[in-house]
């Protein structure tokens, strides 16, 4: 199957889906044209979607460097009508769904470099995929969740309403927070890794983004963008993404 060329993320192909036991996972697939350096799986976070501005900016950064981008709309996101109940989201389910799409990507483009990128718990998921897969070209993590415990403690620091919100909105996700941990997976992969995060992020404080970076066996680049929060977007973020992709040898 060939993805049609796309000069921008808004022109991407939205006709594909990965079948699963429960429901198909819709995909946004964009190819820069005939000359393709590789394919990246771009995984959104909790209540995320492929067309959110911060995800679109990551996709555009890859397209500009001749990488094909595959971004799934994973289950149980409030930003994706028809994806299932947001209160049923779990770390385990997010990783399992991302793994199904990763298998789809690997089957279709086995002869080009394959990379992983993720935002928030999408970065948690791709850490596990990188550990389970031999030879990914690189991992790019944006606002990365290193563990459920770290996410919980960040909410505790924000005050009782922040904790109550996740308990109310995603009780199964909250139940997994005590055990979910990406650090062991990060230590197992030798794929080059970069982190871009918002310096003012309250959900993934700077120390937790640094912990994700420090856990990686082959950490290459870290950028904390001033004035940015959990979903970083804008020219300064674009500059950080450019530097990250250069450090990962993903630039043309």
Automatic annotation (TrEMBL):
InterPro entries from the UniProt entry: AB_hydrolase_1, AB_hydrolase_fold
Region annotated Disordered, chain positions: 1-20
Domain AB hydrolase-1: 39-142
One Pfam family hit: Abhydrolase_1
UniProt KW keywords: Hydrolase
Protein name per Swiss-Prot or TrEMBL: Alpha/beta hydrolase fold
Source organism, top-level taxon: Bacteria
